[in-house]
Design goal:
Elements lengths: L7 E5 L5 H14 L5 E4 L4 H5 L7 H10 L1 E4 L13 H8 L4 E7 L12 E7 L3 E11 L2 E7 L2 H17 L5 E5 L7 H16 L5 E5 H10 L6 E4 L1 H15 L8 E3 L4 E3 L18 H17 L5 H17 L13 H10 L4
Parallel strand pairs: 1-2, 1-3, 3-12, 5-10, 8-9, 8-10
Antiparallel strand pairs: 4-5, 4-11, 6-7, 11-12
Helix pairs in contact: 1-9, 1-11, 5-6, 7-8, 9-10, 10-11
The structure holds adenosine-5'-triphosphate.
Length: 345
């Protein structure tokens, strides 16, 4: 049951760089005056190491109870082993909408300026359903699942978001010329929702391969992107590359009653334990969480705290204080310190 207590949230440190970036973010939130009280639970290899399931029931129960979580990344073994904890959690908690804002940041120089995109990714269906079979030795198959319910609710979420926040346009990326049934259903449902409920929202569609080409040529022509699960996964990283990389793109997984906030990046085992990961993507995710708390609960100081943190990290970057992935020299903790120094500035 979601008790909707305004001040408690679950903290899941995760694997790899997860514990490093969550510790840094927790510290910034405390110094910013956040009233959140954390209830810590494990998932992923961290849970396995404690002799628990990879996604312990107590962890999902805690998110159900408190309604909200800030989550570090969990490692997913490649080509073998357990199925992704991130995917399991999104499905179990019906977190059907992944919301990923991709924005240019002050002091982070890339090929493009003034990028302001929002990716809305369907989070529970598609090839991510993980329905795979060996038909005969040497022949395997993976099933792409699309339901009218799933396609309709994600389209509704995207158009509603666009309308409520005064965004300019929604573009659906698809491959319905090849996947006529699944992507065809995705497009048909989106068109129906658009025509029946949001006719005033500017809406168009693009085949995904051409869309990726246009994206790297001129990202400024896009505003909000709507797509199914796997395309959303890939395009999120592509878009991260436009604004400075995976260290700067936050995310929210939203359901009807629960929400889990996590960065787009994974557990980055190549740099784990070195203290050099960029905590900014998770910090930005925590700002999304504070804004969500203010929108959905009577959590008085969370909007102000969010604004304070956002101003501080923008100023930190503008002052040239950056971690290694952005060309700087600060460690994870030094970057957090630099943000803390600017909280009241
Ligand atoms: P996983 O299997 O958990 O998805 P991965 O290494 O395949 O891990 P990511 O964690 O997304 O995928 O990392 C991709 C690359 O981006 C890696 O080289 C990683 O070091 C880098 N990276 C990801 N997140 C960060 C971060 N927060 N700070 C610095 N570098 C990062």
């Amino acid at each position: 049951m979601n008790t909707n207590s305004s001040k408690t949230a679950v903290l899941i440190p995760g694997d790899g760089i997860g514990p490093e970036v969550t510790a840094a973010v927790k510290r910034v939130l405390e110094k910013a005056g956040s009233e959140i009280q954390w209830v810590e639970h494990n998932a992923g290899i961290a849970a396995l190491d404690q002799g628990k399931d990879v996604l312990p029931q107590e962890t999902t129960d805690a998110v159900l109870e408190h309604g909200i979580a800030l989550k570090g990344p969990c490692t997913t073994p490649v080509g073998k082993g357990f199925s992704s904890v991130n995917v399991q959690m999104r499905k179990k908690l019906h977190l059907y909408a992944a919301v990923r804002p991709v924005r240019s940041l002050p002091g982070v120089k890339t090929r493009y300026e003034n990028i302001d995109l929002v990716i809305i990714r369907e989070n529970t269906e598609g090839l991510y359903s993980g329905v795979e079979n060996e038909i005969t030795p040497g022949t395997v198959m993976s099933m792409k699942v699309a339901t009218e319910k799933g396609c309709t609710r994600i389209a509704d979420y995207a158009f509603d978001y666009c309308q409520k926040r005064g965004r300019k346009k929604v573009t659906a990326f698809h491959k319905a010329n090849i996947m006529k049934l699944t992507d065809g259903m995705f497009l048909n449902c989106a068109q129906k929702v658009h025509d029946e409920k949001y006719p005033a929202v500017n809406y168009d569609t693009l085949i995904i391969d051409a869309a990726c080409m246009k994206m790297v040529q001129n990202p400024g022509q896009f505003d909000m992107l709507l797509m199914e699960n796997l395309y959303g996964d890939v395009v999120s990283d592509l878009c991260a590359g436009l604004v400075g990389g995976l260290g700067v793109v936050p995310g929210a997984n939203i359901g009807l009653e629960h929400a889990v906030f996590e960065a787009v990046h994974g557990s980055a085992p190549d740099i784990a334990g070195k203290g050099i990961a960029n905590p900014l993507a998770l910090l930005m995710s925590s700002v999304m969480m504070l804004n969500y708390l203010s929108d959905t609960r009577n959590c008085a100081n969370s909007k102000q705290t969010a604004q304070k943190i956002k101003h501080a990290y923008n100023q930190t970057l503008a002052d040239g204080c950056k971690t290694g992935d952005l060309g700087g020299e600060l460690s994870t903790e030094q970057f957090a310190d630099a943000v803390i120094d600017r909280l009241n500035g």
